[in-house]
Amino acid sequence: MPEASTLADLLRIRRANQALLRKQGAGYRGSAVGFKFSEKNRDWVKRKGQCVPAIVFFVEEKWKSGQRPKGSSPPLPTKLSAGALSCETDVVEGQFADDIPWLPSLPATGESLVQGLFESKAVVGGIPIRSPLATGAAACVVQQGNRRSLLTNAHVAGQAGNPIERPEPQVVELGETEAACLVGSEIPPKSRARWATPWDAFLESVPWIDSALVRLRPSVVAIARAGVSGLPPLQSPSALDLESLADIGRLLTSVGPSGGRSHGRLMGIAYEWKEGDQYYHADLLILGCREKTPHAFTGLPFAAEGDSGKLVVTADTFQPIGVLWGGHRLQFDSLHNQHAWCLATDINRILSGFDVRIVPAGNQPTAPASTPP
Q1: What are the domain boundaries of the chain?
Q2: What is the pLDDT of residues 24-60, one digit of tens each?
């Protein structure tokens, strides 16, 4: 039986076995598609030098020495098939160990970058922002025509009309929430096509979008800057290729006000889980790794508390790929889903849904002539 060789193959197999997966017990956290991963070795499982395509199951606790964890299902299948295709499966614990720190210990360069994010007067991707609801990060400046906005999370910015500011020590009233979307079910049916991604066609669950636009005040547009602080100029957004596995394992980077500059790898897509009676899915799963070659995986996360909303870009080409919204106890531990691998929304879904584009390098926003700098 031929083995799955593309992301689309894996998604088809998972969908064909959806009824089986949705019968799992309370210890089952959900699934995604990607490569088989060894938690013991902190690396992918390889055969003949190649990573093994797999449907990855997240569980609260693995079976150990044949002992079944309380409340768990019987052992999950080691292989799944659909028609003439088959693939292996993998089981990963979805919870961080208690000894994993909430905030990373930053090197001197990281502390300097974080300090600059708080003290710089420029409004740019990576800076801290806050609303009456939460504190998080700005992803980047986006535009629609002559209108300029900041992109961030819905759970950071809240609903339309919420005031948004930079926190101390450089308190600046940035503007107010212009639009926000937390989950796909909030979108009017006639607009849902704009928010769709190619993998949605393989799923019967609601996309978790968690994105918001912050309309900048005219006086703030003068100090708004393209890109992300500490990163080279951004290139065109990256689009995932479902007809291969090339994007899985791609090295990523981001800048946030808590974790500074972080590195990680794209570990999977279409993470699906259940909350109450509803099934949801997140676009991208990311696991932290070291900055230097060979970019070994670490026990530390790709993001820390306060980084929600930061922009995730490819580390080699600096193409935006997503906006981070969850993982490592980032606001959503109450969902009881996995938080060992960080979660992000595909950037193309967000830009298309809001009908905006990222302000390119060399096209800095400028204030109206009547507005003092």
Answers
A1: 7-93, 108-358
A2: 877 788 999 999 999 888 899 999 999 999 999 988 7
Beta-bridge partners for 271 = 282
CB 322 within 8 A of CB 345: yes
Three-class secondary structure of residue 332 per DSSP: coil
Residues 345, 167: contact at Cβ < 8 Å? no
Fold of 108-358: Thrombin, subunit H (2.40.10)
Distances (CA, A) of 150 to 88, 132, 209, 261, 367: 41, 17, 16, 19, 15
Whether the Cβ atoms of residue 304 and residue 258 lie closer than 8 Å to each other:
yes
- pLDDT tens for residues 63-74? 665 555 555 556
d(CA 6, CA 35): 11
Q: Say how far apart CA 32 and CA 183 lie, in whole Å.
A: 18
Question: 168-199 pLDDT, tens per residue?
Answer: 888 999 999 999 999 999 999 999 999 999 99
- The span from the CA of 282 to the CA of 270, in Å, is 5
